[in-house]
Amino acid sequence: MLVLVAPGQGAQTPGFLAPWLEVDGVADRLHWWSAVAGLDLVRHGTEASADEIRDTAVAQPLLVAAGLAAVHALLPDAAALGQVGAVAGHSVGEITAAAAAGVLSDESAMAFVRQRGLAMAGAAATTATGMTVVLGGDAAEVAAKLEAHGLTAANNNGGGQLVAAGTLEQLDALKADPPAGARLMPLSVAGAFHTHHMAPGVEALARIAPGITAADPRPAYVSNRDGGVVASGAEVLARLVSQVSSPVRWDLCMEALERLGATCVIEVPPAGTLTNLVKRNLKGVETLALKTPADLDRARGLVAEHGEATRPTATEGVNA
């Protein structure tokens, strides 16, 4: 079974969109989506500095636009999209996944993610917060240390990789008093995403969500909340709103992909983060990080090899 996955914030690097502009139709789509989002995606994806694209209000629309442009290049019509058995995204990548699955139109996805980025940037500006990756250590001790310092496990990425989130003071306290055997790595993000600090972002998105048309997903849609397969477009949209302040359970998403029978995972750009996690946690599953158009021929070969005409019939964990 073929799976498409989309990365979250932090995966972007300066100039990563430049080679994609050479692909037929990509520049046209990016110019249109720039108009929809009110943001020059072409400039930000080709010329902007690392600091500019670190801005949450810029990074999130840029990530979704890049992912969707690659989806269109790889799977240009409904028949090709029908080869995909499941989709999943990490954090803001869930919006890319929702559009790829037909839940949201491209335009709705770009308008929604622009408001998401602005709302989360606004929430992050009220308090100095951040995120730190915690690698290794005893799971119980890591959890106890996070609780002791008032931090939230905002991401569980599987394989002993957690992301702690909270105020900068709380993260400094964790750095001074880390769990035994764990390695800490600060993330280049602007706030404590997927924690209570993002509650204003949830409120902002909840105001606009009722005006969005959401269709039921065509392939299986695997949710960050609990690894559940969500069959209702309305429920997918509701989860996209609430996940702004809810932890990302990528570990449970990978377990769901294994249950569904995933044989190949292709990650859309800026790719690499999620395929590395899949390699470590789902042995025997073929992976491809679709980083540049040079990877498209191999990706098309994998679609032909692992694609299917119908969505999975597995029902375990399905949410209506």
Write structural notes for this entry.
There is one protein chain. With 320 residues, the chain is of the alpha/beta class. The chain has two domains: 2-124 and 196-319, Malonyl-Coenzyme A Acyl Carrier Protein, domain 2; 126-186, Alpha-Beta Plaits (2-Layer Sandwich), CATH 3.30.70. It is built from 14 helices and twelve strands. The chain has helices spanning 26-37, 41-46, 50-54, 56-74, 78-81, 93-100, 106-126, 139-148, 168-176, 199-208, 233-242, 250-260, 273-281, 296-306, and strands at 2-6, 86-89, 129-136, 152-156, 161-167, 182-186, 220-222, 229-230, 248-249, 264-267, 286-289, 318-319. A seven-stranded mixed beta sheet has the order 11-10-1-2-7-8-12, with helices on both faces. 51% of the residues are buried.
Can you give keywords for this protein?
alpha/beta, Malonyl-Coenzyme A Acyl Carrier Protein, domain 2, 2 domains, Alpha-Beta Plaits, 5-stranded mixed sheet, globular, 320 residues, 7-stranded mixed sheet
Concise account of the structure shown:
The protein has 320 residues and is an alpha/beta fold.
Task: Please render the helix and strand layout as text.
Blueprint: E1 2-6, H1 26-37, H2 41-46, H3 50-54, H4 56-74, H5 78-81, E2 86-89, H6 93-100, H7 106-126, E3 129-136, H8 139-148, E4 152-156, E5 161-167, H9 168-176, E6 182-186, H10 199-208, E7 220-222, E8 229-230, H11 233-242, E9 248-249, H12 250-260, E10 264-267, H13 273-281, E11 286-289, H14 296-306, E12 318-319
Parallel strand pairs: 1-2, 1-10, 2-7, 4-9, 8-12, 10-11
Antiparallel strand pairs: 3-5, 3-6, 4-5, 7-8
Helix pairs in contact: 1-4, 4-6, 4-7, 6-7, 7-10
